[in-house]
Amino acid sequence: MSLKLGVPSKGRLMEKSFAWFEKRGITLSRTGSDREYAGHVDGVDGVSLVLLSAGEIPRELAAGRIHLGITGTDLVHEKLPRWEQQVQEVAPLGFGQADLIIAVPACWVDVDTLDDLDAASSAFRARHGHRLRIATKYHRLVREFLTDAGVADFALVDSQGATEGTVKNETAEAIADITSTGETLRANHLKILSDGVILKSQATLWRSRTAAYGPSEKKALDAIMERLG
Ligand SMILES: Nc1ncnc2c1ncn2[C@@H]1O[C@H](COP(=O)(O)OP(=O)(O)OP(=O)(O)O)[C@@H](O)[C@H]1O
Ligand SMILES: O=P(O)(O)OC[C@H]1O[C@H](OP(=O)(O)OP(=O)(O)O)[C@H](O)[C@@H]1O
């Protein structure tokens, strides 16, 4: 049996994850054709590479199907209730930094804080007969954050991509999404609420608390940990 290391198979986290391990003397590589999700690990014995979507890595860690995995804090916190019981944070990796935020149309001059949003959402419901809609793919984190902040009259609508476009398309009045440079928000005439940062995320190496660690997996894990020093 080998220690299974889950790494994003494409997208912004893949290359940086490979480079992060390379710096520590561990070479990850994709094998086979461009489209084949097979990989190889050199520089440490007993480790196999599992290439997966960043969004699926939390579930695979929690199920114990991989021992280690790289994905963003946002995805672990969103997808795993009581994540601390299922995974352990091994190391923040210093890339993939992004903030999960709440944003409203820049032209809403009276709405700059969560309190303002609460007032606006009550007024919105009274006026339109339905709740103010917030588009997001982070349902759990957003609901928890708004409920704790005392914002009540909202409805979450699902958006799995191009979330900032939902306001212009009139399928939502506000959004909760990841931002890094802020360019997408600006381009879509949205502003972040001053107290609207839900979570600061970055790519992180996680260890599964539920996976089985036999002698060979323990040995491989120790060898990796030594490299991380
Ligand atoms: N603009 C950004 N800058 C930096 N990191 C980002 C940015 N947008 C998203 N991320 C982070 O990248 C990680 C993966 O998100 P991303 O959207 O790249 O996955 P994905 O490619 O959609 O995954 P999947 O393969 O599941 O579709 C998340 O943890 C997220 O916080
Ligand atoms: O603040 P910025 O630097 O502009 O980055 C933010 C954008 O990056 C991500 O989108 P992604 O590129 O993953 O596309 P998506 O719409 O498919 O999620 C995120 O969902 C934002 O839309």
TrEMBL record:
UniProt KW 4Fe-4S keyword? no
Listed A to Z, the keywords are: Amino-acid biosynthesis, Glycosyltransferase, Histidine biosynthesis, Transferase
InterPro entries hit by this protein: ATP_PRibTrfase_cat (IPR013820), ATP_PRibTrfase_HisG (IPR001348)
UniProt-listed Enzyme Commission number(s): 2.4.2.17
Annotated Gene Ontology cellular components are: cytoplasm
Q: Which GO terms describe its molecular function?
A: ATP phosphoribosyltransferase activity
- Database matches in Pfam families: HisG
Gene3D superfamilies to which the protein is assigned, alphabetical: Periplasmic binding protein-like II
Task: Name the pathway.
Answer: Amino-acid biosynthesis; L-histidine biosynthesis; L-histidine from 5-phospho-alpha-D-ribose 1-diphosphate: step 1/9
Does Repeat show up as a keyword for this record?
no
Alphabetical GO biological process terms:
L-histidine biosynthetic process
| Functional description taken from the UniProt entry | Catalyzes the condensation of ATP and 5-phosphoribose 1-diphosphate to form N'-(5'-phosphoribosyl)-ATP (PR-ATP). Has a crucial role in the pathway because the rate of histidine biosynthesis seems to be controlled primarily by regulation of HisG enzymatic activity.
Q: Which PANTHER family match?
A: ATP PHOSPHORIBOSYLTRANSFERASE (PTHR21403:SF8), ATP PHOSPHORIBOSYLTRANSFERASE ATP-PRTASE (PTHR21403)
The name of this protein is: ATP phosphoribosyltransferase
Which species does this protein come from? Ruegeria marisrubri
